Amino acid sequence: MAEQLVYIDGNFVPRSKASVSVFDHGFLYGDGVFEGIRAYNGYVFKLKEHIDRLYASARTIMLNIPMTKEELSKAVVETLKKNSLKDAYVRLIVTRGEGDLGLDPRKCKKPSVIIIAGSIALLPKEVCEKGIRTIISWVRRDPVDGTSHEVKSLNYLNSILAKLDANAYNADEAILLTPNGYVCEGTAENIFLVKNGEILTPPTYTGALPGITRQVIIEIAEKNGFKIREKLITVHELLNADEIFFTGTGAEIIPVVEVNGRTIGDGKPGKITRLIREEFQKYTTDPSNGVPIL
Fold first, then answer.
1. Is 152 a catalytic residue?
2. Model-level pTM?
3. Tens of pLDDT along 25-84?
4. Is the backbone of residue 65 left (phi > 0), alpha (psi -120 to 50) or beta?
5. Pick the CATH number of 5-118 from 3.30.470.10, 3.40.50.2300, 3.40.50.300, 3.40.50.150
6. From 152, 195, 271, 282, active-site residue
């Protein structure tokens, strides 16, 4: 089997030799942005939306990506082609670039662009099929006037602390609250609740990521006649939901069947969650929702 090739600043490098400088501020300070992207059956799913979000994140942190959107999109496709991948997970990273040991971003002369194409499994498939156990973490999501997760930055310590919390309690995943105590999202997923046939999700102004899969789920739900509403969600509402599920590029759709020891619904993935998963799988196989890997 040929060794995996990684795109680094215009070159394709074997995985065993792929590296960045120890003085790169992405490594030293988490100073950079990224996107996780899926390819399904020879098409890069929602590539334009991912590229647009990457540039929006970069704008917020004043990081000038040294490629046009068109050039970067072509590089993503080319990375998949070089690795002969039709179904894959792509990690697209832009770091501030090499600087010195000081914090000042002006010392970084040129950002670095890295593209990795491979696979990802946040949890075992059989666990996701049955539904996962979660806890509400003591870690609060960063406020919107801090390192808000509206920006998909390389600084994921906030999420990692919550994931460590889940691990400590032998849970599959953690749910983070906002600084005001409302439900925000998972460590790397948006969250949806079902109550009395209505689908609820926290608004992104709470600091949750404006997820691309999240938006697809909203479209699918509305197309199938469900009422969907963005609202501030309390822990009480969360614990008394009929169904809960996570969404994300890496997660796709994951049912939640337990929160802090409370069984959600009948302890199995709910019928609306199952329908959403089925419709999402159909959606990802529609060529009109992706860019071909030619």
1. yes
2. 0.95
3. 999 999 999 999 999 999 999 999 999 999 999 999 999 999 999 999 999 999 999 999
4. beta
5. 3.30.470.10
6. 152
